[in-house]
C-alpha cells in the first residue's frame, strides 16, 4: 500500500504541469516521436526532455529508441491507480451525501415541528 501511495503521489505530481498533461493528452491519440511532440511547445528541446523524463520516471509514458528517433508511448497501466483512487473517493463522498440526504429528508418528515418558542 505504501508503494502504491508513493506511485500515486508521483503520478499526481507529474500531472501538475500543463506541458506534461498536454503530452499525455497527445499520446492518448497514439505514439509520437519526441521531436514531433516538442514542436508543439515553445520551450527548448532539453527543457522538453525533462518533462519526458518526469513522465517516464513516474510510469505514465515509455520511450523506445529506434535509430535516431525516440518514440513516446502512453502507458495506460499507471492510470489505473488514479482511476481506482478516484473511484474510492467517489464511493466515500456518494455515501456521505446519501446519508446527509437521508438525514435531511427524514428529519423534515419524521420529526415534529418544534414549538415556535424553541426556534427563537
TrEMBL record:
Matching entries from CDD domains are given as: HTH_ARSR
Q: Where are the transmembrane segments?
A: none
What UniProt keywords apply to this chain's record, in alphabetical order? DNA-binding
Record Pfam families: HTH_20
Q: Name one GO molecular function term.
A: DNA-binding transcription factor activity
User: In what residue span(s) does the HTH arsR-type domain sit?
Assistant: 1-94
| Entry annotated with the keyword S-adenosyl-L-methionine | no
The record ties this protein, via PANTHER family, to: SLL0088 PROTEIN, TRANSCRIPTIONAL REGULATORY PROTEIN
Query: What's the protein here called?
Result: DNA-binding transcriptional ArsR family regulator
Q: Species name for this entry?
A: Diaminobutyricimonas aerilata
Amino acid at each position: 500500500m505504501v508503494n502504491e501511495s508513493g506511485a500515486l503521489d508521483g503520478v499526481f505530481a507529474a500531472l501538475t504541469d500543463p506541458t506534461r498533461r498536454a503530452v499525455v493528452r497527445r499520446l492518448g491519440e497514439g505514439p509520437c516521436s519526441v521531436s514531433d511532440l516538442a514542436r508543439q511547445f515553445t520551450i527548448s528541446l532539453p527543457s522538453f526532455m525533462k518533462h519526458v523524463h518526469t513522465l517516464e520516471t513516474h510510469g505514465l509514458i515509455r520511450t523506445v529508441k529506434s535509430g535516431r528517433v525516440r518514440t513516446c508511448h502512453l502507458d495506460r497501466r499507471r492510470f489505473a491507480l488514479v482511476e481506482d483512487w478516484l473511484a474510492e473517493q467517489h464511493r466515500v463522498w456518494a455515501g456521505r451525501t446519501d446519508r446527509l440526504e437521508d438525514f435531511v429528508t427524514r428529519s423534515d418528515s419524521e420529526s415534529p415541528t418544534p414549538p415556535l418558542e424553541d426556534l427563537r
